[in-house]
Amino acid sequence: MQGQNIERVEVSEPASISTGIATRYATAVFELAKDANSIPALESDLDTLESALADSAELRDLISSPIYSRADQQAGIVAVGRAMGLSGSTVNALAVMASKRRLFAVPRMTTALRAMISEDRGEVLAEVTSAQALTPDQAARLSETLKATAGKDVKLKTAVDESLIGGLVVKLGSTMIDTSVRSKLSALQNAMKEVG
């Protein structure tokens, strides 16, 4: 080994690797959908896919478990995609991802696709998590408030997390606004520790 110049290579975190992979696939899927004028179909596919991932532990296992072979993942995701009524281009993209063992990046890919679709429309995507589901009126008022801040139309992607107790957590681009009761209680607890 003497005389050899050995370099240290920093290994990226798995999350950043996953994000890079997801972004590459999202870009390809988005460009294909845009060329085919099928962005609305792609949005519908994303709604269906995200809902299925949220509801099905088996589907989450299929995309993330190393137990399944490439062929099993590919056959499984194609069968599931067709059963859900996903478009042919989305099913094909998922099949390619399975053949490359990249299905673990599907959740990040759907997020990246949503952002690309919003940007293409001149919108900004805001991820909103609330303790209870927002009413249509609350969502409209929040969207208008965020529009004033962002200077663009804002599309809301909402989720419910009862552990927030109350309030909202809003992620708009790189800005995060946390008005949740859980966050306020945590800050109060930390302040009390400093006093005591």
Short key terms for the protein model shown above:
single chain; 196 residues; alpha+beta; Peroxidase, domain 1; 2 domains; 4-stranded mixed beta sheet; 8 helices; 4 strands; 61% helix; 13% strand; globular; disordered N terminus
Question: What topology does this entry show?
Answer:
Elements: H1 14-35, H2 39-55, H3 57-64, H4 70-84, H5 88-99, H6 106-120, E1 123-130, H7 136-150, E2 153-160, E3 168-172, E4 175-178, H8 181-195
Parallel strand pairs: 1-2
Antiparallel strand pairs: 1-3, 3-4
Textual characterization of the structure:
This protein is α+β, with helices and mostly antiparallel strands and 196 residues long. The protein folds into two domains: 14-115, N-terminal domain of the delta subunit of the F1F0-ATP synthase (Peroxidase, domain 1, Orthogonal Bundle), CATH 1.10.520.20; 123-195, no CATH class. The chain contains eight helices and four strands. The protein has helices at residues 14-35, 39-55, 57-64, 70-84, 88-99, 106-120, 136-150, 181-195; strands at residues 123-130, 153-160, 168-172, 175-178. A four-stranded mixed beta sheet has the order 2-1-3-4, sandwiched between helices. A hairpin with a 2-residue loop joins strand 3 (168-172) and strand 4 (175-178). Helix 1 packs antiparallel against helix 5 (88-99), helix 1 crosses helix 6 (106-120) and helix 2 (39-55) runs antiparallel to helix 6 (106-120). The termini are far apart.
